[in-house]
Amino acid sequence: MAALPYIALAEYIAVILLGTVAVVISTVSLLSTQVAWKKRTVQAPNRMMGLFTATAMAMTGTNAVQMTYMAALWNPNYHEHDTTLMRYVGTVSLITVNSYEISTLLLTADRCFFVLWPAQRLKHEKFFFTLNLGAIGFFVVAVSYLCTTDAIPASLPENCWAYGCVFSMGTNEILLAARISMSSSNILLNITFLCLLLKYRKCKVRNRSALQKFTNHFIIWLFSFHVVFDLTPAIVDLLLRNFRNIYLQNYLGPYGVLFITFDGFFSALAYNIVLRKIRKTRVQPSQAPGS
């Protein structure tokens, strides 16, 4: 346990750096997306991808802020923090994490609908964009209620250097179960998406035109990041908690925040790469965004 404070500090610094860089990349990408939408002779990604990137930016930025607070008060021999402030910051972080999860899920669903009915792309995009905003609103209310009604501990438990310690075991279990449910649903949707791409692999409209090919690559990259950095650590954590009564954060510090920040960082980087490729592709005016 003597090494835990230093492990936690290293994770704080890593999250701060990754989160800051991810916010910068996402900001540049979103500004570039606005330019692409205005220039109708340049292909642009759909709004679901833009909303996804915005939620990724919010999540990584919030993670960086909360770890900045923890790093500023870090002391290997003195482990006292304002648990009320940590609860509020942690609640905002949980809202952004769940918003990121639901945006990933609905973005994949949007692509599945596109492959099945490519002629109705804009109709489906508007539907999922509205649904995504509604789902984010629901999570804001639900997570806020769950976290504000949960008792706030007077102090952090010994050897705990993560924000999960300011929430009760029941609340953590509910939030973890919700996260695993969304991640598992996303995997099922991604498998469905890959099967649909294979079925229609010779269709240029669905997956061989430049715009759709790059967008499909983006979804596949997100799938890989999600499995490695999100679902796998969450499942391991849940299994150890329930069958061995082992809490990894008591040994590894805020590793969960680090992994989800990695997920958001690589997603932001992937979106920036895809956006650059899409913007290089010229289209006819009849194919321009919004036509």
Automatic annotation (TrEMBL):
Keywords: Membrane, Transmembrane, Transmembrane helix. The chain crosses the membrane at residues 12-37, 49-73, 85-107, 127-146, 176-198, 218-240, 252-274. It comes from the Eukaryota. The keyword Transmembrane applies. This is Uncharacterized protein. It comes from Steinernema hermaphroditum.
